[in-house]
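Extended Data, panel c. Modelled sequence:
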Amino acid sequence: MKRAIGTGYEIDGMAGQSPGFMYICGGPGVGKTTAVTACSQHLAKWAKDSGFAKPCYCHINMASNASMSIDAIKKDMFKSMAKKLEIEKNSSPTVFLNQFRKKGMILVVDEIDMLFKNQGGSAEEWFSTLIEWCEDKELPFSMIGISNSVNDRNATTIRELSNTPHELVFPTYNEEDLLAILEKRIGKKIVDTKALQLIAKRVAASTGDARKALEITSNAVEKALDACTEKWLNEVEVDSYPLVKMPQMMRAIREGMPTRHEEIIRGLPQAAKVILCIAVSLGKAWGPTAAVSIATLKKYAVQATHHAMLDDASLGMITNLVEMLIDSGLLTTTLDGGFNFNANDHSSLLHIGVQLDDVEIALEKSLLGESSFYQSLVDYVKRECPRPEYQ
């Protein structure tokens, strides 16, 4: 088996006879179930090339059974296998074993670690029975257990009861893998390349979960579509692509991968922290929908230079810092209300929708509690910033 059919990992020791029981584990969304499903599609050819009759194939997901009693779980598993063997669901275990000998059975138990959830010794007893069937040389019965558990208690139990099974551990997807998956699923026209690279990088740095990357990208597409007019959708031209750009992807990432603002703020450059304090203070004084210009931010940033907390209070530098804060999700911008913000025109007005509640709380926990300067800066802005007449 190779990644060409869905996984990309070579599995050593699989050229011989059936392994009996194989344990496939790794984090969520790394291709475990996809790999097994892809391999099952080659089952008929494998059996023919090996001179065997095609065995029955039964895939069971334990996640939906986790709350059942062990007797109910066993009954449900027998029911699923009976359907594949074409026998009565209430047949005795002896009948099942006879059918295994006649037809063969490959049982795939997805989320197999859930079998042991709140079941205690009764689950271990049933699992041991399944392992006995796998180890019976005269019984063409094999089982594949799929699990997110790699090194926890359930994984240890599975390894101990199965007498050290053949094991395949899937590593998490890296940035390159995720980008390739996204491009294969949605192409290269719908979503801006930089936006795809961003979501691939973010997910690779956290969980490597391909499903999470696809889910967030789908959310970004929906946001872009919601922003489109019916006329645009009906008359869309080739040069109108990409549909999804960085702003939509950033919003989808913030919703799908929430990050604590306190941690983000601590990682900001000092100059960005200064501008954030000013923006939050203006938002509290003028209201979250107030409009502000880069030139106005510069006015209050000059105060910071007097305390050696900001080396450069130029308009260009402040513009770059505002863009950094927007990208990090600490500030949000809107273009409605008649304001048309142009980063190249420092007098044009910008709606800064500061996420006041959570960002201010994060500021209080981090900057305002660490430095008297930041607190004095906030106090200065609140004291010296009367609401402009155009607000």
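Residues 160 and 292 are 64 Å apart (CA to CA). This feature is highlighted in the accompanying rendering.
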